[in-house]
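Please review this one:
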Amino acid sequence: MSQTSSARLRPDERRAQILAAARQVLLADPHRELTVELVAAQAGVSPALLFHYFGSKKKFQYAVIEEAAAEVMLRTAPDPSLPPDEQLRSGIRAFVRAVLEAPQLYRATLLMSAAGDPEIRALHSDLRRVFSQWVINAVAERGIEVTPVVELACHGWQGYVEQTLLVWIDDPTVSPESLERLCEQSLDAILTTTSE
C-alpha cells in the first residue's frame, strides 16, 4: 500500500491496517520477533507513523496481544452443537493451534505478565479466567461434579498447559499433533486424581 493511498485512512482504519500487518508478519514466520520495523514495512508505513497511532512500543504490543487474545477466545468458544467430550477436545485443540500460529506473541504475553506489567497481567488474567470457566463448564457437561477440588484441578491444568506450550515453543521435540493430544489427555489424567 502506498503512502498516498494509506493517508486517506481514518485513524481506526489505520490502526486496524497496522494490526492486520502484525498478524501477517506473525503468520509468515511465527518464530520471528515481532518488531515495529517489520510491522511498519508490512503495513507500508513508517515506524514513526506506527508510533503516532499507538503511542509507544509497549502500547503497540498490548494492542497486538489484546487482538490475539480476543481471537483465541472466539476460536475456543464451545460449540453447543457438539457432544460435551468433543466440545472440550475441539476447544483445547483450537487453543493449542492458536498459540502455535503466533508462539512469540504467546511467549511475550506470559513473560510480560510474569514481569508484572499491570495491563498485560490484567489481560492475561481475563483470558485465563474465561478459558478456565469454559473448561470447568465443559467438564460439568460431561457429568462430572464440579467440586472445589475439580475446579482447582482445572485451573492447575491450565498452568500446566501454559508451561508445556512454552517449553515446546523453545524446543519442539514432538509434532504439533502430539502436543495437542498431550494437552487433551493431561486434563483427563489430572481429573482422575480428584475422585475421592
